[in-house]
């Protein structure tokens, strides 16, 4: 598939420690599909600067766009902005436009723009800001990297702002069919289907429900007519097994 | 923290496409914590052999143990076992002990051990089998890599079998406290706490509930008494804010 690719870098001890179950990756994956961008890799690393720098440099070299989530808050363990500056070899400091956004928000909320909050106005040189309509502290974009908050509601708002500015590809379409057959009984047919439709990706996901073995088959691609044709062929092969 | 480290490699178009929300990573992270092993990195790659080989070689060089999930089923897109063999530079073929497990299971279930199912008995040279108490097709362990199924119930059963055989470390303990304070208002205090307790990891996770801004503070480490002390100091700093 010739679609643009994206990668995601999740900076988060809270996911690696098992405390939180990822939500941002799942959200981003779904949004990218609609936009015709293929999420091609995800890495999750802890809040350790060299690990963030190394992963970011690998991902930004290999993909059209990289999204990061997490680590841009006000506390001592929020080190993403510094790590990004280091990865790009640029300086970082409090920037006036970001500071003004924070000041305005703090004024409205009756909060103090203290030293901790001011950390959130530190932006790597050459970056453009990504709007945070929820709590003002901006994300930013530098090169092909979009740096976003880890709090899901803010992450989602930032994705909504960024996505329309990215070059999408043909919509990534999918259809699925649930067959009441064990995966091992349909594997041969699926291989044949994959060979007959080389432009499509054919995935199968086995399950057991009420003691019955079944398989969800998902056919993905950008050519809706070909997906229809492959789906038609699949259901014709197992007419009595379609759930 | 001097605990052993682990990494996880998720092989799964179904997660990258947004179809499925990860469950195995979250489960594994929680189990490793109990066992005193620190999950230090996760990568999610698509069902593409060179991507699996590259990620696996990077992870197995950097961590004590690597767990993979997904891609060991019977279909054409189940290429994990071959990719692992390639990463280790060893051969792979149907192995008699794995074939016998599959044959026994198929006999009991009245299934045909067809060519597709026989793929699941292909084991890289030098690997040992990981038992699958649910559907027989084994995982395997080669070097420091444990290769496991992606179906969550089977993944979990395999983890339960493997974990007792791994060297754990001191239990990774954590305590959390919910403060009814915005993260930016407690960031200075948290930094001070982190400096006073250098052996502990102090994370903060902001939230908004019913219009009230709050922060969950999580203190992690292996020294329970130190965690108690840090927690005591934190709640003394914000006595009226403890939710």
Quick tags:
alpha/beta, Molybdenum Cofactor Biosythetic Enzyme, Chain A, 2 domains, six-stranded mixed beta sheet, three-stranded antiparallel beta sheet, 11 strands, 26% strand, elongated, MoaB/Mog-like_dom_sf (chains A, B), CinA (chains A, B), Molybdenum cofactor synthesis domain-containing protein (chains A, B)
Structure characterization notes:
The structure is a homodimer of 243-residue chains. Chain A has 243 residues and is an alpha/beta fold. Chain A has two domains: 5-165, MoaB/Mog-like domain (Molybdenum Cofactor Biosythetic Enzyme, Chain A, 3-Layer(aba) Sandwich), CATH 3.40.980; 173-241, Alpha-Beta Plaits. In chain A, 39% of the residues lie in helices and 26% in strands. Chain A contains nine helices and eleven strands. In chain A, the strands form three sheets. A six-stranded mixed sheet of chain A has the order 2-1-3-8-7-6, sandwiched between helices. Chain A has a three-stranded antiparallel sheet with strand order 9-11-10. In chain A, strand 10 (201-209) and strand 11 (212-221) form a beta hairpin. In chain A, helix 2 (24-34) runs parallel beside helix 7, helix 3 (49-62) packs across helix 4 (80-88) and helix 8 runs antiparallel to helix 9. The interface between A and B is large, with 67 and 66 residues. Strand 2 (38-45) of chain A pairs antiparallel with strand 2 (38-45) of chain B.
């Amino acid at each position: 598939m010739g679609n643009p690719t994206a990668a995601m870098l999740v900076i988060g001890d809270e996911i690696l420690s098992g405390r939180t179950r990822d939500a941002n990756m799942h959200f981003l994956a779904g949004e990218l599909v609609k936009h015709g961008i293929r999420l091609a890799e995800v890495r999750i690393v802890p809040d350790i600067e060299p690990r963030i720098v190394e992963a970011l440099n690998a991902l930004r070299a290999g993909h059209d766009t990289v999204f990061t989530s997490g680590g841009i808050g006000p506390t001592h363990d929020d080190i993403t902005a510094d790590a990004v500056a280091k990865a790009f070899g640029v300086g970082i400091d409090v920037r006036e436009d970001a500071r003004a956004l924070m000041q305005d928000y703090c004024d409205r909320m009756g909060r103090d723009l203290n030293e901790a909050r001011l950390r959130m106005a530190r932006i790597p040189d050459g970056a453009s800001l990504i709007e945070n309509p929820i709590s003002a502290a901006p994300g930013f974009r530098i090169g092909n990297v979009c740096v976003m908050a880890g709090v899901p509601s803010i992450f989602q708002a930032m994705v909504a702002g960024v996505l329309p500015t990215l070059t999408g590809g043909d919509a990534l379409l999918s259809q699925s069919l649930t067959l009441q057959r064990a995966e091992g009984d349909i594997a041969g047919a699926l291989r044949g289907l994959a060979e007959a439709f080389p432009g499509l990706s054919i995935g199968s996901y086995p399950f057991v429900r009420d003691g019955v073995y079944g398989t969800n088959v998902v056919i993905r691609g950008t050519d809706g007519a070909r997906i229809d044709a492959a789906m038609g062929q699949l259901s014709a092969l197992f007419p009595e097994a379609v759930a």
